[in-house]
UniProtKB/TrEMBL annotation:
C2 domain sequence ranges: 1-86, 97-213
Superkingdom, taxonomy of origin: Eukaryota
Transmembrane residue ranges: none
Gene3D superfamilies, per the entry: C2 domain (2.60.40.150)
Protein name: RAS p21 protein activator 4
Amino acid sequence: MAKRSSLYIRIVEGKNLPAKDMTATVWKTLCPFWGEEYQVHLPPTFHAVAFYVMDEDALSRDDVIGKVCLTRDTIASHPKGFSGWAHLTEVDPDEEVQGEIHLRLEVWPGARACRLRCSVLEARDLAPKDRNGTSDPFVRVRYKGRTRETSIVKKSCYPRWNETFEFELQEGAMEALCVEAWDWDLVSRNDFLGKVVIDVQRLRVVQQEEGWFRLQPDQSKSRRHDEGNLGSLQLEVRLRDETVLPSSYYQPLVHLLCHEVKLGMQGPGQLIPLIEETTSTECRQDVATNLLKLFLGQGLAKDFLD
């Protein structure tokens, strides 16, 4: 059984956007209208979806005006879809994190003191920070003033390291273990990709832990509150979760539908009236699209359309 999440997005318009460079903007407006629709397939484990408003520049890099971020819970709380105006917020590079890191953590007694072993295995879905759409990630592990770093993996958002670091644990120490992911840059400063903070006291109790940890932004930085000052974006977003069962579960329905199409070649069938009777206007397009895919696979698409 497989699961898939689909987002149906309509980006309607913006208003009261701040002027970045009017002469470089094609439409020369701070209240643009788009009316564009998209369908995006996402993994069922996605946490949020973000919309970035950019100011296009012909010669230099495009300016980021702001963003709207909708969490999965926010979208899912509107069964018929989220629709409305949302304030743009400032884009902080250190908050633009995504992805997860795979760690193996162990605590075991040593000759003089307990030892903490942190194995950095791999990461997935890291934020692309370079112009080529990838990053050059490495991991920095910090504990009680000591810092260790992994090797750099070039041009990858799904790096593998399989590197292990050890630290001495002092009795009663309350400091946490900090695991940070960075994008290495040769000329400019390294870009922050996110971090995970491990409670060492809890780790002492469980002795070992392994799993995927979601990367988090740097919460220690002070934040500006520009919400409402950067304009607004009108969106219509609808989430649909699909569960795909093994193909054998669908065979009785497939045979029934194919039989109906073949009968329809000899006279008026019941399939189209049944679809019109049991579906709403909103979902009829989806039903028709899926039926066409099914009949294409069965070699009956032409008969179905006729």
